[in-house]
Every structure is written in structure tokens, then in C-alpha cells.
Amino acid sequence: MIVFETSPQPAVRAGEEDLGGRRVAGRLLPYGAEPEPGSLRYDPITRKFPRRRAEAVVTVGPASAEAWREAALRLPPGPVLVGPGSRAEEVRGAYRAAAEGALAAGRAVYLLDPPEAGLPRESAAAGTAGMVALCSYAAGSEAAFPELRAAKARGLVCGVLFPLIPGWTAEPAAIESLVAEAAAAGARAATPLVPEADGEARRAIVEAHSLVGEAADTEAFFALIHHREWVAAMIERLPAVRSRCAARGLGLLPPRPIGPREPAGNAAASARLEEHAELDALAEHRAEALRAAVRWIDESGRDLAAVDREGNFRRVFPFDGDVAAEVEAALRLDVLRPVR
Predict the structure, then answer these.
(1) Which of 131, 150, 193, 324 is deepest in the core (most CB within 10 A)?
(2) Percentage, residues of the chain above pLDDT 70
(3) From CA 30, how far away is CA 16, in angstroms rounded?
(4) Helix (H) or strand (E) segment spanning residue 320
């Protein structure tokens, strides 16, 4: 049994997290931090399936966009993530309030698995350019990404994220099916993720698979997941999977939203550096330098394209020449700027 308890205060999580290669500065949690019981939704932040539970108390945030706006203003600079949603959204309205509040705060917003009832009202449609809907893989669902079509129909830019699991979603036929579904439903990007593989994560994978796979496969799949070291193989498979995504015209990282009060050039520069760090074969220290530069750009609060036009960019940017050149290229290429 699920018990929904209303809280007058928004639940937030401040601090940097990785969302398929994109930096998230904080999170608004309209239905609390724990996955809803019965969910088989893959979590792209923890990179795990949730363990199934029969009972839980779900804390529901306020249905006030103003309360969520104030909460979003207190988070560190950079894009924020709203979600996950809940089957109770049509009654409770907390997800929509959080989404509209984050946008009203001027933030770039990722909507994680937005329920249709939680999508911004038509009256807020002009602001949806600052939002990107990201739909994660749902095991056992009729559609692999259940919220995708509704979010796309509302005019949102969309992406999908899915795990690479041996003997299941990482097999060629499964990948082709997932990528084809994403493209057909209007996703702009498809991001494969290598799952966590600690004991709890492996148990959750087997549990999720048992509900969607053939009974005859259960024992072999259990042995594969629990008794083999498969993470390195999934990492090695990433380039081939990304090639399949690109062949369908899909981007490889989630589209990066541009907040209503965020300079478009800054967003473009952050997006470019994130893609370079995530997709190119770089030494770890080099990738970390790029991610640190993304953090600096998000926190700068200055229109860096204007600074660049004045000829002062290299005077204020504290990173080396190669990183600075990457940022300058993004600031000067209009085509990279809007997700709008």
C-alpha cells in the first residue's frame, strides 16, 4: 500500500550530479527521493533499477509554483532536475508546480519522466524552451519510454536514457528496438548508460528482468549478472551503441536546456565542453578539467559571448588555451546555441 503524505515544504537536493554526461546543479523532488513502489523505472542518476517494495510512504510537495520557485532560487547555479513523477500527479499537482516554479526562477530545467498531467500548462508554453524532457527506460512497459510521446506533443525537446545490460538491453536487437522507438516518438537524443554493478544493483537488475523476461531465461540471466564481470564489456560496447543512435539522427547526450535568464552562449559553451569530456577519448585529468570549466561557466553569471566580443574573454577565463578555444568556438557558433 502507498500512503501519500503532503508536505508544505518542497523537497530539494542541492549538489552536483551527473545526468547522462550533463551537469545538474540540484534537484527538485515533487514526490520525494525514494522511487515509488511498483516502479521498474531505470534511474539515470543512480544508474540502478529500484528494488521493488510493497508498501511505502511518499512525501508529496506543495502544489504551489511559487514555493518551488523559491526553492529553485536557493539551489547552486546551473541546470536543475525535476523528478521523478508519480501516478498521483493528476490529483496532487506537485510535479507541474515544481516544473513551472523552476522555470519561473529562470533556471534551465530537465524534466525527468514527466507525467502527462505534470507537463506545464499551455499558458506556460512560451517558457518551455527552457525545459528538456528526459524519459528513462521503463522495464515491462508497453512503451520503453512511456512519457515520451506526450512530452513531445506538448512541444518539449526530448531525450531518452537507457541502460546497457548484457543479455537484455545491450543485445543488438534490443538496442535497435529502443533507438527506433525513441526516434519514431520524436526524441532528439538517445543516451546509453553503463549501470552500477554493486550487489544491490545486480539484484535489482535480476528482479526487473524476471518480470519481463522468459521464465526459461531466468537462471542463465541470474548467473550472467551475478557471476560475471560485465561492466568493462558494456563500456567497450558504448561506441557501437552510440553509432546506432547517431545512424538514426539522434544526439548522444541529453539536449541541454537554456534557462530564460541564462545567456545562450554560456549554455552552448557548457554543452560543448560536456560533450567533449563525455564522448572523446581523453585522459581523466583532461576530462575533469573540462567539467570544472563547465561548473565555472554555469556559476560565472556573466554573458561570456559579450565578454568575448569585447576581446576580454581570455582575461577572465581561468582555464588553459585548449579549453578556452573550445569555449570561444561555442560562443561564436549560433547554430549550437538554442535548444528552442
Answers:
(1) 131
(2) 92
(3) 18
(4) none
Q: Choose the weakest-confidence range: 55-64, 181-190, 232-241, 285-294.
A: 55-64
Average of pLDDT values for 274-280? Answer: 94
pLDDT at 70: 98
Q: How many CB atoms lie within 10 A of CB 93?
A: 19
Rg of the chain over Cα atoms, rounded to whole angstroms, equals: 20
Rounded CA-CA distance 270/202 in Å is: 34
DSSP 8-state secondary structure symbol assigned to residue 186:
T
Written as one letter, the residue type at 189 is: A
**How many Å apart are CA 190 and CA 176, to the nearest integer?**
12
Dihedral sign from CA coordinates of 63, 67, 73, 75: negative
242 phi, psi to nearest 5 deg: -60, -35
Q: Over the stretch 97-151, which tens digit does the pLDDT of each residue have?
A: 999 999 999 999 999 999 999 998 754 444 567 899 999 999 988 999 999 999 9
Secondary structure class of 82 (helix, strand, coil)? strand
Q: Tell me the residue type at 140.
A: G
Asked whether the beta carbons of 12 and 26 are under 8 A apart, the reply is yes
Beta strands in the chain (DSSP E): 2-6, 12-19, 22-28, 56-60, 80-82, 109-112, 131-136, 157-163, 189-193
Q: Name the β-bridge partners of 192.
A: 162
Give 206's DSSP letter: H
